[in-house]
Amino acid sequence: MTLETVSEVKSHGGVQGVYRHASAATTTDMVFSLFLPPQPERGEPVPLLWYLSGLTCTHANVTEKGEFREACARAGIAFIAPDTSPRGPDVPDDPEGLWDFGQGAGFYLDATQQPWATHFNMRRYILDELPALVAQHFPADMTRQSITGHSMGGHGALTLALSSPGRFRSVSAFAPIVAPRQVPWGRKALRHYLGEGDAVWRAHDTVALIEDGARVDELLVDIGEADPFLEKELRPELLEDACADAGIPLTLRRQAGYDHSYYFISTFMADHVGWHAERLNR
Amino acid sequence: MTLETVSEVKSHGGVQGVYRHASAATTTDMVFSLFLPPQPERGEPVPLLWYLSGLTCTHANVTEKGEFREACARAGIAFIAPDTSPRGPDVPDDPEGLWDFGQGAGFYLDATQQPWATHFNMRRYILDELPALVAQHFPADMTRQSITGHSMGGHGALTLALSSPGRFRSVSAFAPIVAPRQVPWGRKALRHYLGEGDAVWRAHDTVALIEDGARVDELLVDIGEADPFLEKELRPELLEDACADAGIPLTLRRQAGYDHSYYFISTFMADHVGWHAERLNR
């Protein structure tokens, strides 16, 4: 598979790259960023931390504002940030013209309904196509992967990890959507991409996946108490209940005064990188 | 003086604010950002580190990409990032339509030539008007200020510190323009803002100020060896020569592989914050 280098810039001792490739999963070009820490110059493959972004974001938001490079360089971890959906003039977009669905809002699932199913296949893009590309082009140890994400990307990290046992050594999230079946952003996306039908929706809902028996070893989740989406869209109490019932050790940190922005994410990014590093380097 | 709060967001334990005010120096509205670390909640005024940005930038570039908050929160230092020039439809701009002069390129001097002199008075804005506003509205210890900056903002930090003895406890720079009299960006700006005349230009040129007797205790400067502007616009060797002749201790670090971007700046930002913190907290 061919990879086009958009840019490669030295930062924090490593290389922050941005790359473009033709995707079979989305039938569009896709752009992602990947930070490679200094260690690969010595020839050792490094573990890989996935970061899935939230609604409206591209790879660029976390790449510019995430403050992850210092921690990743120190821990010797590569950091990959994919886009949040296919994009382009031929890709359908929100019929309501809003920002919470369509381009920038792929919800990390494979759509089954048209006109979405042709392009909106972010689940297999993230789980299959992009890892194969990374393995081919970068010194990443694909036996050591972890995943995190923000908001819709927290939903992505949690649902992909829960539904792919053994694939990720650890999973964490910043202000995740944990029950899309029960909140407006999620219901809109699931209805369009998957059609009606709760059984189908449950496979893409963190709380339902846990209720239905999916497990991870443990979870780290940060939430800002001043997050304007907390009560209506995020509803961390539903994750707490599901984890308590399932016996999944959940570290849920309610951070006083923090909102939903990268000013919140960047504050706790080094904590998450360090937490994953412990589990990736065991 | 009235201050309008554009936004205040919690980050790294402190508050990242963006503020707008009517400026007498520029006769425009001006926007700046100020990060206040957690310490003032305990009532202690904190030292203030100025960061002057480079060509084309506003307060936003370093605020989003600078990775300074963790270090400032740890050291208990406030961080202020002004804009680089007056802006607006009534403010004249580069007659050539380029990005290296006019709006976004105030060069931290007070223009004497029209049409520039009405608005382009960034020197007195940074040295007089904005400090008075900060002292009025924030718990900053104005007896403990330091200054740094990038590219044109490195020029600003160095020239303001050299020409205001005792004002700043320490000064550093990232990839500064050190001899505007001798390089294209600088000559264009000095000619338009100040008119012809080397005697006038020397007062706004770091190397000339040092040659003419201005002194600071020491300097910390980082330069990227892969900076595309290194040889034509930055010319750090001229600063090395001037400091050697003047007996100013200069720590000039030539960082292999780094360019002119915020990927470079953010890599060494914590070093600079820590270096200033040592001198501010003595």
TrEMBL record, chains A, B:
SUPFAM superfamilies: alpha/beta-Hydrolases. The active site is at residues 151, 227, 260. Its EC number is 3.1.2.12. Belongs to the esterase D family. Coiled coil: none annotated. This is S-formylglutathione hydrolase. Pfam families: Esterase. It comes from the Bacteria. Keywords: Hydrolase, Serine esterase. It catalyses: S-formylglutathione + H2O = formate + glutathione + H(+). InterPro entries: AB_hydrolase_fold, Esterase-like, S-formylglutathione_hydrol. PANTHER family: S-FORMYLGLUTATHIONE HYDROLASE (PTHR10061:SF0). One of its GO terms (molecular function) is S-formylglutathione hydrolase activity. Serine hydrolase involved in the detoxification of formaldehyde. NCBIfam families: fghA_ester_D. One of its GO terms (cellular component) is cytosol. GO terms for biological process: formaldehyde catabolic process.
